[in-house]
Amino acid sequence: MGRNGGAGAGTVIVTQAPPAAQQEVPPPRPGPDYAWIGGYWTWANRQYVWTAGHWEVPPRQGATWVPPRWEQEGSAYRFHNGYWD
Fold first, then answer.
1. pLDDT value for 3
2. Who contacts 77 (Cβ-Cβ below 8 Å, separation ≥6)?
3. Over the stretch 13-62, which tens digit does the pLDDT of each residue have?
4. What are the structural domain ranges in the chain?
5. In this structure, are residues 49 and 41 in contact, taking their beta carbons and an 8 Å threshold?
6. Which has the closest alpha carbon to 79: 9, 14, 3, 1?
7. Considering the entire predicted model, what is its pTM?
8. Which end of the chain is more exposed for a tag (fewer CB within 10 A), N or C?
């Protein structure tokens, strides 16, 4: 079962909409077991900062990556961490 990054001390809520996702071209896959984790915008030092995508080995066979996302809540935006499901 997955987990959601929407609760707890690490919750990020901002009033500025996130920029559009950057286009990434993944480098060659380092091995057959790797999955591409796409880049995303995070919030640091009162501004959006791009976190580049990377290859990662899933924690178990059949795991699916649920990407992080920004969700609008009224006039604010809440960040939800990505996770393996």
1. 38
2. 13, 14, 15, 16, 17, 18, 70, 71
3. 999 999 999 999 999 999 999 999 999 999 999 999 999 999 999 999 99
4. 12-18+32-84
5. yes
6. 14
7. 0.82
8. N
Residue with tokens 């609008």: 72
* List of E strands, 1-85: 12-14, 35-37, 40-44, 47-51, 54-56, 65-66, 69-73, 76-80, 83-84
The total number of residues shown for the chain amounts to: 85
Contacts of 38 (CB under 8 A, 6+ apart): 21, 24, 53, 67
Binned at pLDDT 50, 70 and 90, residue 11 comes out as: confident
